[in-house]
Amino acid sequence: MTFTSNDHAFVICAYKENPHIEETIHSLKNQTVKSNIYLSTSTPNDYLKKICEKYEIQMLINPYPKNAGTDWNYGYDNVPEKLVTIAHQDDLYEPTFLEETLKCIKDESDFIICFTDYNELKLGKIEKSNFLLKIKRIMNWPLSKKCMQKNKFIRRRSLSIGCAICCPTVTFNKKKAGSSVFDTVYINSCDYKAWCDLAELDGKFIYINKPLLIHRIYSESATSKNLGNNIRQKEDLEIFSRYWPKSIARFINKVYALSEKSNKI
Prior knowledge:
By secondary structure, this protein is of the alpha/beta class. The chain is 38% helix and 22% strand. α1 (21-29) links the parallel β1 and β2.
């Protein structure tokens, strides 16, 4: 099997009236390789309706809203394409994101997820490197090597010390990953939990060590709000406890929480 752009869809998960969503759409429309674009929301409104009409994007409305995991699952499950990238409403995709992704996965019918490196956008400035980005790149590096992409031990070890996979960079192979991949209990770490569950499947985790997305960090983002409420720490501790005894899990969680400071604006 060879994957092409016809097999792929970007699904923008939109919430209320986000001021950055048009920039996200522009970055998807400007891809060097074109694919289908959808917008999925559980908060339909005139603002989103007008944007969809302006850019000729089909809107999917989740009738059973609960949290981010539920919203992402709805968009993921309700498009017909075999490959899906869940685009967050405030991030920017480099023009070659899809081209580079397809280049890596076109003949890889057994891949589960393919994800890329990324840069950060803070207070209007792009950060190409910081302490947290360096650590995540080290954690992900083994999965850029073909000989390690099927190795469950490698991906378990990486996930056991934190989540280095940036959700909006991930392209899913729906046939391998299955339906409703995101956890619907966790508020913040539903994606981290998903990577841990998918890591147990047979198939490849493919990492492209090129920064092909710009991840926006700002005070109104869901991640920043959840950090302020310590929601992320509580959920991450549960995940760490999946891999380690409680005492070690608590220690790792405290160290890992220090990295969260870079996500606070």
